[in-house]
Each structure stands twice: as structure tokens, then as C-alpha cells.
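Hi all, posting the design record for the shared folder.

TITLE: backbone redesign
STEP: 1 of 1
STRUCTURE INPUT:
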């Protein structure tokens, strides 16, 4: 217990004293290649540190203890300005094209439904992850993670009657147990069965029509709000905060989402998963529909090594940190991709990515390993399944968990 309390205290101090300029190697950057959010006027200050993501500037930290945002996610409601980038795919062949690009059967989706979907390279490596929303029979949106993806879509569209565009939509996430109550108050629409998990709908907020999906990046109840060209973004922001006053809605930067997304087993493209992992080695095989016979990488996946290489890891005496080495019997067998202190579990948690050539790679689950910190000290840790809790994803579905 003392080790756990010490770990929590150390993590608090680490986050308070963290010099982001040194930790992230910050440099000044021109707006020519990085687009500022249309909502930035409502929160920009000298305290905000930005990160470039999908060609957009995302507020990484704002001088507020991330633990405050975490508590809002678990107990109340928080708003985040996020950089996920929607792309529009429209045309007579839109369904067939989506089946070509993604590992899911997108052509079978009903309008206003959403799916988590991966795009793979011909060798089965993960190129991109994100959310598909079917807006109409001939119209899809793909909300991509970090990276250039429109070029990939364009390169494979020659044989399809589709039009691929950037709709220039900027996304807000409203997350936490009170998120649907904020949306209901802002829209005047009861939320009983109006917006189920992984569904989408149009709502009028402050006299403006916007697309909203019941999705998010936190493992909590939440929605994503998609702005569009011509929208009065600042008025939309103000409408949500006016509706959120009874619930003490507050704005937080991306660092407040980090711990919760780890607890929820949500992976970050480019950090935890990349083209060096397949859906199988990343533990994402349930998002591959082999009934879809046309997707890029299908043949490679059918004949690939399906040994799992990415797991969760828990430790009492250390906070797993990116690039910490993982040992087994004095041999380096993997590394940490991301980690933090979990207030829910009262221990350090993270993701461990094992090296593919190790003969034990298929039996790492529940194994004891050692994590080496920056001082070369070794700490015992246990390999676990993801997510760390709420295995059935009941929380974001609005089902109360004991």
C-alpha cells in the first residue's frame, strides 16, 4: 500500500513539475502547415502547449492538473477540443470503396451508424485507425487518427466512382457520466433512446445544426460533435457551456484524457500501433471481417503470424513510461509504448509491446516480467489483458458498473 501511495504522490509531482519544453522538445512552428482550431479563441493562453496531430494543433496541456480532468471524466463531464480529422467519401461506389480500404464490412452498415475500423497495408500492417460513420447510402465519413490518409484514399480510388474530400470539420468531445445530460439540455431533445452507443444523429444546438456521434476516446459515456464550414464555432462552444453550467462542465486539454484512455485499453495510432503490427499482433482481430473479401491486406492477414505482441502491464513500484525496457530472464523482450498512474487501480499501468521473434510471444498473458526505469532499476510487473477494467465496455454504453 505504501508503494502505491508513493507512486501516486510521485506521479502528481511529476505532472506538476513537468517541463514540457524539455519533455517534448517543443519548437515554434508556423501555422502554414499546422491549422489552429476555430475554438482556440475560447481557451488559448500562455499556459497552453500545443501538439501537431493530423496537421492540426491540439492543446496538449493547459496548466491545469490532469487529475482534475480525469475526475471530471469519471464523475461529471468535461469538454475537449480534439484534432481527429473527418474525411468524406461519397459516390455511387462509396460502399464498395470502403470495403476495399477497411477491414470491416462498411457496405452493410445502416445510415447513421458508426464502426471502429482499421486500414491495412498490403502486408497486413496497420496504416490507420478511426471511426466510420455512414451518413447516407452513398456517403461515409472516416474520422482518422494522426497521419496523412487522404493520399492513400486517393491512390486507391481510380476504379471507383467516389469523391474524396476534406469537409474541414473540427471535432469537440463531451465526455463523462453527465455528457448526455449536457447534450439534452443544449438540444432540448431527451436522451433516453435518442442516441445509442456508436450511433450518430443531427442535433440543433443554439440554432445551428451539427452532426453528433455517441463515441469518444475515454471509455466513458460521451459524444463527439462535428463542426462544419460556415458554422459559428464560438457560438456553438458557448451554447454547450451554457447548457453545461448545472453540471459544472469544464474544458480540459488532451493530457486529462491520457490516463483514462489507457485504463480503457484505447490504442493510439503511431504510439501504440503502427505498420509494424497487424490487427492480430495488436490484439485487434475482432475488428477484421474476413467476410469482406476485398480489403487491402486480407491475403496477408490470412497467412500471417497471429501471435499477440501488445498487452497491458501493471506495476506497483513504478509508473510504466514510454520506451522503458521490459525484461524476462535478464533478456530484453519488449518495451513500454505508453503508461501512467491509474487512480482507479492504484498502481502504474501501461502498454507493453513484445518483440516478435521471442518464442514465448503467444503466452505473455499473466506472465511476470521486469520493467527497467531510467535509473536502471528493475521493477516487477504483470502482463494483463486489455482493457484494465470494464471488460465489456459497459461504462460508455451507460450501463452502471458495480
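Okay, here is what came back for every position:
SEQUENCE:
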Amino acid at each position: 500500500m505504501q508503494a502505491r501511495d508513493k507512486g501516486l504522490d510521485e506521479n502528481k509531482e511529476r505532472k506538476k513539475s513537468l517541463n514540457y519544453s524539455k519533455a517534448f522538445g517543443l519548437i515554434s512552428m508556423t501555422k502554414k502547415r499546422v491549422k489552429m482550431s476555430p475554438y482556440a479563441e475560447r481557451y488559448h493562453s500562455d499556459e497552453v502547449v500545443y501538439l501537431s496531430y493530423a496537421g492540426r494543433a491540439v492543446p496538449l496541456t493547459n496548466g491545469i492538473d490532469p487529475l482534475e480532468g480525469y475526475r471530471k471524466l469519471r464523475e461529471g463531464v468535461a469538454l475537449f477540443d480534439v484534432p481527429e480529422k473527418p474525411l468524406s467519401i461519397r459516390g455511387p461506389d462509396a460502399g464498395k470503396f470502403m470495403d476495399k480500404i477497411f477491414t470491416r464490412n462498411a457496405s452493410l452498415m445502416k445510415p447513421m451508424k458508426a464502426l471502429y475500423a482499421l486500414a491495412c497495408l498490403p502486408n497486413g500492417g496497420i496504416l490507420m485507425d478511426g471511426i466510420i460513420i455512414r451518413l447516407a447510402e452513398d456517403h461515409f465519413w472516416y474520422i482518422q487518427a494522426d497521419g496523412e490518409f487522404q493520399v492513400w484514399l486517393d491512390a486507391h480510388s481510380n476504379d471507383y466512382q467516389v469523391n474524396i474530400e476534406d469537409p474541414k470539420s473540427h471535432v469537440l468531445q463531451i465526455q463523462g457520466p453527465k455528457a448526455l445530460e449536457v447534450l439534452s439540455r443544449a438540444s432540448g431533445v431527451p436522451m433516453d433512446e435518442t442516441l445509442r452507443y456508436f450511433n450518430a444523429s443531427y442535433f440543433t444546438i443554439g440554432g445551428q445544426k451539427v452532426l453528433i456521434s455517441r463515441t469518444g476516446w475515454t471509455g466513458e459515456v460521451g459524444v463527439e460533435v462535428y463542426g462544419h464550414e460556415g458554422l459559428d464555432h464560438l457560438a456553438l462552444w458557448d451554447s454547450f457551456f451554457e447548457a453545461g453550467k448545472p453540471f459544472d462542465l469544464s474544458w480540459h486539454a488532451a493530457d486529462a484524457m491520457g490516463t483514462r484512455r489507457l485504463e480503457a485499453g484505447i490504442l493510439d495510432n503511431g504510439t501504440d500501433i503502427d505498420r509494424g503490427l497487424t490487427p492480430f499482433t495488436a490484439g485487434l482481430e475482432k475488428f477484421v471481417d474476413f467476410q469482406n473479401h476485398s480489403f487491402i491486406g486480407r491475403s496477408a492477414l490470412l497467412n500471417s503470424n497471429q501471435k499477440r505482441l501488445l498487452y497491458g502491464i501493471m506495476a506497483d513500484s513504478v509508473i510504466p513510461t514510454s520506451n522503458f525496457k521490459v525484461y524476462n530472464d535478464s533478456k530484453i523482450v519488449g518495451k513500454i509504448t505508453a503508461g501512467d498512474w491509474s487512480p482507479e487501480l492504484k498502481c502504474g499501468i501501461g502498454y507493453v509491446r513484445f518483440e516478435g521473434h521471442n518464442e514465448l510471444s503467444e503466452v505473455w498473458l499473466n506472465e511476470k516480467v521486469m520493467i527497467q526505469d531510467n535509473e536502471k532499476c528493475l521493477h516487477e510487473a504483470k502482463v494483463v489483458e486489455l482493457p484494465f477494467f470494464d471488460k465489456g465496455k459497459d461504462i460508455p454504453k451507460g450501463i452502471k458498473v458495480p
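COMMENT: Residues 12-28 have pLDDT under 50 and may be disordered.
Let me know if anyone wants the other runs.
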